[in-house]
Protein 1
Amino acid sequence: TDEGRKTLKERPERLKEVNKEVESMGAKVVSQFAVLGGYDFINIIDAPTNEVMSRLSMELGSRGTIKVTTYPAMEIGAFVDMLQGKVPSGS
């Protein structure tokens, strides 16, 4: 958001502070990219469940400084296993 861009311009270190908050909620920032186009940043976040990611999105998004779009993903091997009807490990 405009407010988020203002915050980052004044305090670029805020990005690392938010990463620590993400970890405190049970997820981990794997990669971050500043991009051009419709989005300013892309963050690859590893969360143990969609519920953890939902909480994270709500917590950070409720501040009004970012707009969050999530794309739940799975590794290709797990995707192929799912297509072949294999049961995920740990189940």
Protein 2
Amino acid sequence: MRLLATATALPPTTESAEEIAKAIGKSHAWVRERAGVVRRHTATRETASQLGAQAAVQALGKAGFEAADLGWIFCGSATSDQSIPGNAALLQTEIGKSARGIPCLDVGMTCLGFVAGLHVAEQFFRGGLRKPILLVCSDIASVGTHPKRLQEYCLFGDGAAAVVLSPDGPPLHAAFQTFGQFSELCELPAGGSRKHPSRGAKPDDFLFHMDGPKLFRAVVDRFPQFLSHFLAEHETRVEDIDWLVPHQASRHAIDSLSNQVGFGTDRRIDIFSTHGNQVSASIPTALHLGIQSGRILSGQRILLAVTSAGVSFGAALLEHT
């Protein structure tokens, strides 16, 4: 599998640490030090499918394709425009007439949407698909947070990223684990059949909930071992990897993972301070910026490392070509 092109799209509206601080009644120093966010992009009227389509059109243009040339459209959004249909179909509509008729698939693993999408795409290519796949991850996390929930409100930013994949190039190695017993530590409870307006759901149930300390402990006790086993299985040492692209979960999470696994700041792509946690769009946005800036070069090996709601882990080894 080969990444033919990458692109991103961001809402034009930005919030500085000072503006975030004003909304929550804290100092801008508190936001910078405790949350680690200097600025972030926040959607006002944009939807996840609209933002995703902007990134998709850019990526297709860079790759030299029309949407009609695609074999599939994959969408990894965690914050879909609506419950039904999934965002992949809505994304197709936003891309335009040339995308009509192209089959669409939603890859729903929240922050793991991009890595899961890469893995599914490679399986399609191994199964004989010869046309390119468009993988789009787009999230508007700001609609699910509230200033009174300081921990969640300060962390998230909005954005989208897209990649065009072709059925050639070096292999992708990926692995996943899920520990469902920790699901309640990171959730948006309402919107499904369990907590619904007709079943007494409250307004607060429609906001994102996270128990940061317990979630961090659940991850830190398991994720390093998961990554170590993954690398050993593929006979890869940390020294063999040129770049770590971690999920931009939080300042603390990025630093902790890097230190535990053995990556210094000179070998990781870190965009958290300027983008926040963009959920599924975090990894592909960081990957795009790493390539665009000239830091990630052709032939270099990249480790994508992600934790998500579920609680799920994911990792992928790929070579940039």
Protein 3
Amino acid sequence: MKKERILLLYLQAGGGHYSGAKALSACIKEKYAEKAEAYMVDGLPEDELFVKGIIEDGYRITANFLVPLYAASYELSKLSPIMKSHIETFSKISTDYIAEYIQSLNITKIVVLHFFLVKPSRDAVERLGLPIPIITVVMDPFTTHPMWFYEKEGPFIVFSERMKRWAIEENGIREEDIHVFPIILKREFERRMSPEEVAEYKQKLGFRPDKKVLLFAGGGDGLPNGDRYLEYALKLKIDADMAIVCGRNKLLKFQVDLVTKRYKNSTVKVYEFIDFMYQLMNIADVIVTKGGPATVMEALILEKPVIIVDYIYGQEKGNVDFVVENRVGHFIRNPKKAMETTKALLENPESFEEMRKNIQALQLRNGTQEIVDFILTCN
């Protein structure tokens, strides 16, 4: 039987698109190597430095640090003429580039993980005259930008019934073209570490075995204002060891180091960019984070209550609503109030256990393999 050759198209606009492609690729390689090969490709040509800067650095900086500007541009981009202009411009930039990959790799199927790449993929396939299925994976679970559904032809993969209803009722997508699966996560998150493994890893990282662990983490750029949340946690003398992941954010690392110097008797581990987030999340009891879908769902699938202190305007609002409505965490921006709530949760076993039971009731699971199964059978 001829192998499927699957092109996974992403952009480096936030970590979720790339990590989704990586999870799908890893699953295909591990589970279906005899049936398929996956090729991960950034859908923006390398020589488009200006556009690349806007898509990658511009998105990251405005979404995290210039929120009013990001919110204004987000709302404007939902207007039909502007949406059309953005999509048509991107199609002119990427169509030939994508077509070259389709030809050189003999691609038989395309999976799109960013809305800017849907139209250029369709234009590339049409230009080549090839009958290649294109599957769009909408990477935001509950709320997202309507650009995902600018092109009306499916199939679309979404991660919630809420998103399915919105696609149908507000964006004119046919019901038969929308397929709901659990969210894509890294394969390791399908299993929680055992108590013995947690104890072993605590010792390895220098945490005290008899203490709870409070984790501050917010993706590749760290947790916005993470130093302030950490300082209030230390001021309130929360009875837990603490860890904060600063990622690539050098300023946050500098600010956190200043805080830890003022509280020398506390156990605080400060990390930059790490490759053991799975282990760190497993040893944590509560996770203070922002509203990104991957981090929130990774925490919940490990049965860790979350304290969300920030989110990206528009696309991440639904993740916050999901957490609050299902009583599996809290959303509090104020650092003092957020840490008071965290302290109460960690020091009240009844409240903590009730929240864990709420998480268990959601019956969350990793949808990566189910999605790969669908992709392989999609015609």
Protein 4
Amino acid sequence: ICVQVNTKNVVLKWDVISQGGMDGTAAMPRDVFRQALRDGASGIIVAHNHPSGDPEPSPSDVEVTRRLAQAADLVGIRFLDHVILGDGRFVSLKERGLI
């Protein structure tokens, strides 16, 4: 999910970017930013779930987060957080210092 926000971090809308199975899904930066750029969003928050119920970020999650942060810098959109949900818990990669 990509949540679009304005300059005051008020949610404007959210878009489903990709749906995966038990093994994961591929969300390329172009897919994440496409609609936010069209809509003129000031910032985004990305979120996804872990079907296993364990919200701990995988190495792949960390790598995707770094790529998204780099892409956000290039296109001029604030990348506010990447949140992983699982079994009533969540992990914020921003809180972990990974953004």
